[in-house]
Amino acid sequence: MDFKIAATSAAISLCALAGSAQAQTSVLISQRNLSFDAALQAATTALETCRKNGFRVTVTVLDRGGRTRVVLHDDNVSPHTLENSLRKAYTSLTFRIPSGDMGKRIAANPTATSPLLLDKVTSAQGALPIKAGADIVGSIGVSGAPGGDKDEVCAQTGIDKIAAGLN
Questions:
Q1: Of the candidates 79, 60, 58, which has an alpha carbon nearest to the alpha carbon of residue 69?
Q2: Is the same domain home to 61 and 11?
Q3: pLDDT digit string (tens) for 37-95?
Q4: Which of 68, 75, 135, 143 keeps 20 to 30 A from 129, CA to CA?
Q5: Are both 83 and 156 inside the same structural domain?
Q6: What is the extent of the structural domain holding 17?
Q7: Are 2 and 67 in a shared domain?
Q8: Is 114 exposed, middle or buried (0-12, 13-18, 19+ CB in 10 A)?
C-alpha cells in the first residue's frame, strides 16, 4: 500500500514538473523583426524609385507587430496617401499577401467582403509583405502613383534593396 502511494505521488510530481517546464518554455518567445535601418532603406528606395518614374508618393513601412517604423511623405503629395499607404501596408502584413490580392479575393467571392469592415484593411494594390524566409517581418505600402500596380513596383524595389539582409 505504501508503495502505491509513493508511486502515485512520484507520478503526480513528475507531471507537475513537466507542466511547469512546459509553462516556463512558453513564457518568452523570440521573433525576427524588421530593424529601423532596414525599414528606412526600403522606404527611401521605394520613394526614389517612384520619383524616377515620375510619381510623388507616400511610403509606409510596418514591423511584424503592425507598428509604424517609417513614413516618407514626398512633396506635393495628396494628404489621403498617408492613410492609404498605411492601410495597404497593414492589409499586406495582417493577411500575409500583397494588398491587391485582397481585391482579387473579394472579386472572386463578392459575398466575402467582411475583411473590409476591419479597421485599416483595404483592397487597394500597392503593398507587399516583407519576408525573412517563411517569416513575415514587416510590410511596405506605397500610395500616390497613378495606379496600384505602379505603387507595388516601387514597394518591390524597397524590398529588393534590403533582401540580402533578410536571408
A1: 60
A2: no
A3: 999 999 999 999 999 999 999 999 999 999 999 999 999 999 999 999 999 999 999 99
A4: 75
A5: yes
A6: 1-30
A7: no
A8: exposed
Q: How far from chain centre, in Å, is Cα 116?
A: 17
How many structural domains are present in the chain? Answer: 2
Q: Which of 125, 123, 121 is closest to 151 using CA atoms? A: 125
If DSSP states are collapsed to H, E and C, what string results for the chain? CHHHHHHHHHHHHHHHHHHHHHHHHCCCCCCCCCCHHHHHHHHHHHHHHHHHCCCCCEEEEEECCCCEEEEEECCCCCCHHHHHHHHHHHHHHHHCCCHHHHHHHHHHCCCCCHHHHCCCCCCCCCEEEEEECCEEEEEEEEECCCCHHHHHHHHHHHHHHHHHHHC
Same domain, 113 and 67: yes
Where residue 40 sits, what CATH number does that domain have? 3.30.450.150
Q: Provide the grid cell at 133.
A: 524566409
83 CB neighbour count, 10 Å cutoff: 14
pTM value is: 0.83
Q: Is residue 61 located within the same domain as residue 26?
A: no
Are 127 and 141 in contact by the 8 Å Cβ rule? The answer is yes
20 shares its domain with 76: no
